[in-house]
Design goal:
This protein has about 375 residues and is an alpha/beta fold. It folds into two domains: about 10-170, Rossmann fold (3-Layer(aba) Sandwich); about 185-365, Glycogen Phosphorylase B (Rossmann fold), CATH 3.40.50.2000. Helix content is about 40%, strand content about 15%. The strands form two sheets. The chain has a six-stranded parallel β-sheet with strand order 3-2-1-4-5-6, with helices on one face. The longest helix is centred in the first third of the chain and has 19 residues, at about 85-105.
Length: about 375
């Protein structure tokens, strides 16, 4: 089913679009290419993005967006522990509803596919609400969408799933663009100064991301695997910078200790500065977390380490890459099943080094 006009494209009366992807970092970044294609296909559209307030830095100032509608997640969480917090929470929700309704959206694209995103789409007042069918939606999300795209295979890539949401709009999604993240000259210079101070040179360097958020601890690659990669980088004359987010310093220090001087721990960085560090690196190495998809969004080659997440569903995109994962593992595309199948067990230092060698050889060729 399509909502295209007879002449092709989106009808003139349906050009105020609400994109819904509330989080997390990697999922938002993998939604950006679809939004970029929408912008190219309908340059006159007005496009706003609904996301949790913590991801403002990720999307603020993006050239393909006309604005953000930040869901007050932090304030709602804080209100739970305060006296009369439910009254404040109700006020926050009402305020957010007013923002949505005032925008006068015609179309909602629900890339998130859960109860909360479905409610946001319905409350927005958009008459056309496009979402997923089958296993790609959960918590009754389908009850809030007016048009559902077929679910596809469970092991189809997340990028393919996101692009499929454009089909009812008649938008060609055969080519996947980058993330379009804006480049800031001042942050570029700051990133250069940081690298020079840490590694003593601005020549070829790699970014290694050893940490993960507390809620995704199961995605953290064993430090000895990352240390082995750092050792191989040193053989090629490539410095290794260990980046880290809040609470991840210990992970970076553990890899540095095992790498015996082949990797250096970076100082704490803001999210925008991290983007520029990764953009200017020759290689990114890490697990299936947000920073890996930052690398894809900004065009940096990737060595991805997979174990508890399906490398087919969560593969790097739009960049030269190699993925390494346990060879005897059977993946299903079902998160809870793949997560409990053995983590990174079976992934060896030799496999990581071999994957890195293949990537470096391909880049040199």
């Amino acid at each position: 089913m399509t909502i295209m006009s007879k002449k092709g494209g989106i009808p003139a009366g349906l050009r105020k679009v609400l994109v819904i992807r509330l989080g997390a970092m990697g999922d938002i970044l993998r939604t950006l290419p679809a939004v970029r294609l929408l912008r190219r296909a309908v340059p006159e559209a007005t496009i706003h993005w609904a996301c949790d307030d913590r991801w403002r830095q990720l999307l603020d100032g993006h050239p393909d967006l006309d604005g953000l509608l930040l869901f007050p997640r932090r304030d709602l969480d804080a209100s739970r522990s305060s006296p009369g917090g439910w009254l404040r929470a109700a006020g926050l929700v009402r305020g957010y509803r007013r923002q949505l309704r005032a925008a006068g959206f015609h179309i909602a694209l629900d890339f998130h596919g859960n109860l909360r995103s479905g409610l946001i789409g319905a409350v927005s007042g958009a008459k056309v609400r496009i979402g997923y069918a089958g296993h790609q939606q959960k918590e009754g999300n389908r009850l809030f969408t007016t048009l559902q795209v077929p679910p596809g295979l469970r092991r189809s890539s997340r990028m393919t799933r996101n692009m499929s949401l454009l089909a009812p709009l008649g938008i060609d999604s055969a080519t996947i663009p980058d993330g379009g993240l804006p480049r800031n000259p001042e942050l570029d210079a700051e990133a250069g100064d940081l690298v020079r101070a840490a590694l003593g040179t601005l020549q070829r360097y790699a970014v290694i991301s050893p940490g993960v958020s507390a809620g995704q601890a199961y995605k953290k690659p064993p430090p000895e695997l990352l240390a082995a990669a750092a050792g191989r980088l040193r053989q090629s004359g490539i410095g290794a910078l260990l980046t880290h987010g809040p609470g991840e310093m210990a992970d970076a220090e553990k890899v540095a200790a095992l790498a015996c001087g082949a990797a250096v721990v970076a100082p704490p960085t803001s999210l925008p500065l991290l983007f520029h560090l990764i953009r200017n690196a020759c290689v990114f190495i890490g697990g299936d977390t947000g920073p890996l998809h930052v690398a894809c969004a900004v065009g940096t080659p990737v060595l991805g380490l997979y174990g508890p997440t399906d490398p087919a569903v969560n593969a790097p995109w739009n960049v030269p890459h190699e993925t390494v994962f346990p060879r005897d593992r059977t993946y299903t595309g079902i998160k809870r099943v793949d997560r409990g199948a053995g983590g990174f067990r079976g992934l060896t230092e030799a496999m990581v080094v071999e994957g890195l060698q293949r990537l470096l050889a391909g880049l040199e060729a």
